[in-house]
Amino acid sequence: MSELLSRQVANLSPEQQELLRRRLAESKQRDAQPAAFHELFESWVRRDPDRVAVAFGDEQLSYAALNRLANRLAHLLRDRGVDRECLVGLCMPRSLEVIVGLLAILKAGGAYVPLDPEYPPDRLAYMISDAALPLVLTRRSVAGVLPEESQATVLAAEDFWPELQTWPDTPVRLDGIVDDLAYVIYTSGSTGRPKGVQVTHRGFRNLARWQFENYGLKTPRRVLQGTSLSFDISVWEMCAALLSGGTLVLPDPGLKMAGSDLADVLIEQGVENISLTPSALSTLPEEALPHVRYVTVGGEACPLDLVRVWAPGRAFFNGYGPTEATVGVSLARYEPDLERVHIGRPISGMQAYVLDSRMQPLPVGVAGDLYVGGSGVARGYLGRPELTAEAFVANPFDAGGRLYRTGDVARLMPGGDVEFLGRADDQVKIRGFRVELGEIESALAQHPDVRHAAVLLDQDGA
């Protein structure tokens, strides 16, 4: 054990010291050689070019066709000034074009910033200004939600699509970009301003490898992509399909992602792999969906009753991972006879630590602050150096590494799994979405008739 690690774990038993040392060593040993998202996608283009990559209603694109379109658009974007780490807005409803646009931004060396057309115009205007976006890709049907006065050039798919045939379908050549930004996703902020989380390409290969090994992806699967790009579960869904040779199934943008409406799409499209919040999964008729073989839940607590219904005959996973750690930190596979809900163990290349206020590891069973580390840890918050320094700290167990202070409370279980216990602050989850109560309070306080504001979560849903 290194001198650095020895000093940090002095309050643990010899057995727990050995467990921590072994977990860190295993994480480093299995940490895959990093690669950019689009490079991992291109490896499947070479392996199986004719396989369907994306399906949207009656439309579909093969891996080869999707790659060619994305390459052409990448060249166009380069001509419009997109270079390495250039942030490009993506404001489109669910469609084939949005996947082409996303890949093209990455292939051009840029990073995409999702701008959900369903967001309030004021919020979109703030994100475009805060990220200083020079360019936004959109469609005419939703372009009206974008601010009229903005520094960003707006490029509609209907305008650039006919031009794509004039650009080369060969890839843009870029080297050494695994530590470049891949995307910036805005999350709720306690000060009343959303904050942009800067995520690089470095964590994608470990994520894709876990999915390939645990989702049975040696046989390509049809994967639902039902989450808005503004939430990082969408990245998980895209990885499970496009980085594993599967098919990404896009529902109609107006579809209600719950109940019989969603069940009908899953049946019609033969979807085999879904990732949903427990509350959304609970609305689906399990008996009508025998072809759904892989189920992952996350974003909120998973009730044991849900496991009893959905785990028999399926691979059922509960995942944990903040946006600041490239979607997935740890996952647990649940069997139908599960007795205690937990979030499992870190995936390859990631670490999880339960620490006290002095950044010392806590013994098994003792609640403490949950910190995560590894290749998926984000760069920080866009334009917020003080907030970044507060949330992203030096890793005392791994010289040169960084940890993200999640704000979650957890404890280690005797078998080595992590049990999530709740939050240490005012952040809440509503239908799986992170919400800072301070952001709501700040918005309420701006009203001239409001002197002070306080917001509480109604746990009973009344």
TrEMBL record:
Its cofactor is pantetheine 4'-phosphate. InterPro entries: AA_adenyl_dom, AMP-bd_C_sf, AMP-binding, AMP-binding_CS, AMP-dep_synth/lig_dom. Signal peptide: none annotated. SUPFAM superfamilies: Acetyl-CoA synthetase-like. GO terms for biological process: amino acid activation for nonribosomal peptide biosynthetic process; secondary metabolite biosynthetic process. GO terms for cellular component: cytoplasm. GO terms for molecular function: phosphopantetheine binding. Residues 41-382 form the AMP-dependent synthetase/ligase domain. Pfam families: AMP-binding (PF00501). It comes from the Bacteria. Keywords: Phosphopantetheine, Phosphoprotein. This is Amino acid adenylation domain-containing protein. It comes from Streptomyces reniochalinae.
